[in-house]
Structure formats: C-alpha cells, structure tokens
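Supplementary notes for students who missed Thursday's class. We covered one full example, reproduced here. Read the sequence, then the structure, then the short commentary at the end.
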Amino acid sequence: MTIVSEFKAFVARGNVLDLAIGVIIGGAFATITKSVTDDLIMPVVGWLFGGVDFSSYFIRLGAIPEGFKGSPESYADLKTAGVAMLGWGAFLTVVVNFLILAFIIFLLMKGVNRLLVAEKPAEAAAAPTPEDIVLLREIRDSLQKGGTKPL
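Structure (token representation):
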C-alpha cells in the first residue's frame, strides 16, 4: 500500500471529515461570536462604565521608538510600531468572546443531551423477553439450585 493510498483511506474516514467540517463551522462561528462581543456586548459594557472602549486599554512597557508617526495613546499604532505593551483591554474582550462561545456551546450540548435522553426511553422499551426464553432461564436457575431430582 502506497503512502498516497494510505492517506486517501485516512482522509476518507468519517471522523476526519467530521472534524474538518467542525473546524470550518467553528471558524465561521468564531467570527460571529467576535462580532457579537465587539459590536453588541462590549459597547453596552462600555456605555455602562461611561463610554469606555476596553479594546484600547493598555499599559506601555517599552519606550516609543524614534520616528514614531502614530498617536502615543493608540494601542493599534503602538502595537504596529512594536512597542512592548500589556493590552489588558484587548485581552478582556477576548475573554468575553471565549465566555460567550463557551456558553453557547454549553447550551448546544445541553440541547443535544436532552434529545439523546428523550430517545433512550424509546430504545429501552424494547420487545419483552419471549416466554420460551423466560422458561429456559427458570429451568437453568432451578438446575443450578439443585431443585430437580433425576428420573
């Protein structure tokens, strides 16, 4: 078996394709979550705290380089210039993104688990054991106890 045919067999497995589809959907879902955080939630949080934009909060650790052409108060300009900074506002935004995404995944898994539990009782209500099987089990149990006498 050549490496190409082994690779084809590996990729053709259902798990690999499911994983690839999950990654693609997850990437698209992450952009939606980022938009929800950046465009809906963080502006409300900023409004609650007096019009604050958390993504621009940072602590500058390094010196501003010679010939810097941006604003010394702009996180994006300083980051582009390579200034060492702690971007705690951007980090806070990412944490909120993560929490939203984790909560949505939790809700999805909770819904899926409910569906699976709802299907289990239908599976558990399998056909009753036939009478001949029940009778054979009773005979077996009786023989194991020594309850019969030879003829």
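Commentary. Residues 21 and 27 are 10 Å apart (CA to CA). The chain has a mean pLDDT of 81. If anything here is unclear, bring it to office hours.
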